[in-house]
Specification:
It is built from 16 helices and 14 strands. The protein has 533 residues and is of the alpha+beta class. Helix 2 runs antiparallel to helix 3. The longest helix is centred in the first third of the chain and has 48 residues. The mean pLDDT is 79.
Length: 533
């Protein structure tokens, strides 16, 4: 018995409640924090401005310098405190003795808090939070100087921290009330929206619609043929995965859904199907150089044409596979790498000649010659098939160009074979395995690939090992399938071609993922030419 599905109205109401509650909590925390910080900054700024003003007041300066004027300090500070809603304004002399205080009984006594030393001893402004006779407060201190620039005291302006906490609490209550009201409105709105949505969906619940869409989507995406549909306005409505692969090959990377078919595919002729209402079968068509074989049919609902559909297959894929299987592409890439490496070295030699660095040039040429001789001696001496030997030398150049250390160990002399197709298939196998190994280590510190080749009793053994991250189990299950790749679109032919080539030669392919890297082992029949040793 299937699990009971939740109704749309319940889902929407629950979602709205969760969203509003999360917003409520987040909003409350952020607003409280922001309000506290902003209020603290405003209070600090206010306290600093008032303390500076008081420090420059003639009443305060005269009161500190003249004993007879001292009484005016208390009167002046009390008046300022009342008009600015400050907790206190305390003026003190250089000994920290109060000359003003909200509690007149504390005048003449030392300032309490211990945070006045900085302004009295160093004569600089500062802000602190400390506990005094009036409780915890935020205090701003400013030095007081006479007309000669000599410090004669300091002023401390304080605001109670309790006032800040009261403001934050009041904001918290207001925010809570508004959030609760919003929650109630959201629940009612969600209920009405759910009823409206269900009405326009013909009474179907979301899980029923989802089931229908999943079935349709699975059907479209499982088809190997590309599928594209348009409506009566010539707008593209459906494009499946197989169709997108063909479009991407043709340079159409953006999703064409919603666009005019004439704009995306000018020669699709689907608009003609809408007008003629007649199908067109097995029509060859080109999309930006990609050849497809298409079938086009009108979509009829209730005896009315509501659109058109085209299904098609890529005819260029077989041509591409044939080129890959022949090994021509890999061999050409190896030759290109050799040519590119040779040109780079010529540029270096030309630069050294231009700068007249003859000693360095001599060492560089010797290094190139020694390296080349070692490779030639090892590869050409042991690989008697000139095509295969040239390909291996090209892969060595390609690896160096990509900063990879490719080590080729040839255990025994590899004789030539009379059938060049065997060599081409070996080039496909070796080339793709080396390229995959390079991709596996290109971002690693250890960029080494070990390859060994051995020939015994008309069998050729090849092993290629990298020191990358290995292959996960999911990839191992699919990596030999055509088109499967973890490297992006238009990939996934390498290991498929390796497997096809090894099987065509009547050999076997094994692999093993180690703690660091992967090793592929190939063994194939290798019937030699007896006239060449």
């Amino acid at each position: 018995m299937g699990k009971k599905k939740t109704r749309l109205s319940v889902l929407i109401t629950t979602l709205v409640c969760l969203v509003v509650i999360i917003v409520l909590i987040t909003n409350d925390l952020l607003i409280n924090y922001a309000t506290g910080e902003r209020l603290k900054e405003n209070i600090e700024e206010k306290a600093v401005i008032i303390s500076r003003t008081m420090a420059k007041s003639e009443w305060v300066i005269n009161g500190l310098q003249n004993k007879d004027e001292e009484k005016h300090i208390q009167e002046y500070t009390n008046e300022i405190s009342r008009s600015t809603d400050l907790t206190f304004i305390v003026v003190m002399d250089m000994n920290g003795i109060r000359k003003s205080h909200p509690n007149s009984e504390l005048i003449g006594k030392p300032f309490v808090g211990g945070d006045e030393d900085t302004v009295l001893e160093q004569g600089i402004e500062h802000i602190s939070i400390s506990e005094g006779t009036l409780g915890d407060s935020l205090r701003a201190f400013s030095p007081i100087f006479n007309g000669d620039g000599e410090q004669i005291g300091a002023v401390s302006v304080g605001i109670s921290l309790q006032e800040i906490n009261d403001v934050i609490y009041n904001n918290h209550i207001s925010n809570l009330i508004s959030s609760i009201v919003g929650l109630i409105i959201g629940i009612l709105g969600a209920w009405f929206i759910a009823r409206y949505i269900k009405r326009i969906l013909f009474g179907l619940e979301p899980f029923q619609i989802a089931k229908m869409l999943k079935e349709r989507s699975a059907t479209l995406e499982s088809a190997r043929e590309g599928i594209i549909t348009i409506d009566t306005d010539h707008k593209i409505t459906i494009v499946n995965k197989a169709a997108m692969k063909v479009f991407e090959k043709a340079g159409i990377t953006e999703s064409p859904v919603g666009k005019s078919v004439e704009q995306v595919l000018p020669h699709s002729h689907l608009e003609e199907i809408l007008e003629s209402k007649q199908p067109a079968m097995d029509v060859e068509q080109k999309i930006n150089g990609v050849t497809i074989l298409a079938n086009r049919m009108p979509i009829v609902v209730n005896d009315e044409v509501v659109g058109a559909i085209s299904t098609f297959r890529d005819l260029t894929e077989l041509k591409q596979l044939a080129k890959q299987l022949s090994g021509v592409k890999l061999y050409a890439e190896a030759l290109r790498a050799q040519s590119h490496e040779f040109m780079n070295k010529l540029h270096v030699i030309n630069g050294m000649v231009t700068t007249k660095s003859y000693d360095e040039l001599d060492d560089y040429i010797k290094q190139i010659v020694n390296q080349r001789n070692e490779e030639l001696n090892h590869v050409v001496k042991n690989v008697k098939d000139s095509i295969l030997a040239g390909f291996l030398l090209g892969k060595l150049s390609d690896a160096r160009e990509r900063d990879v250390n490719l080590q080729i160990d040839i255990a025994e002399e590899i004789p030539a074979v009379p059938d060049n197709q065997v060599v081409h298939k070996l080039i496909t196998v070796i080339g793709n395995l080396i390229d995959n190994a390079i991709d596996a280590i290109i971002s690693k510190e250890n960029r080494t690939i070990d390859m060994y080749v051995s020939y015994k009793n008309d069998w050729l053994y090849i092993g290629i090992q990298d020191y990358g991250v290995g292959i996960d189990e999911n990839t191992q299950q699919q990596m030999f399938q055509k088109g499967y790749s973890t490297k992006g679109n238009n990939r996934g032919y390498g290991l498929y071609l390796v497997k096809q080539s090894v099987e065509a030669l009547g050999g076997s392919l094994r692999f093993e993922t180690l703690e660091a890297g992967t090793i592929f082992e190939v063994e194939v029949p290798y019937k030699i030419r007896r006239d060449i040793r």
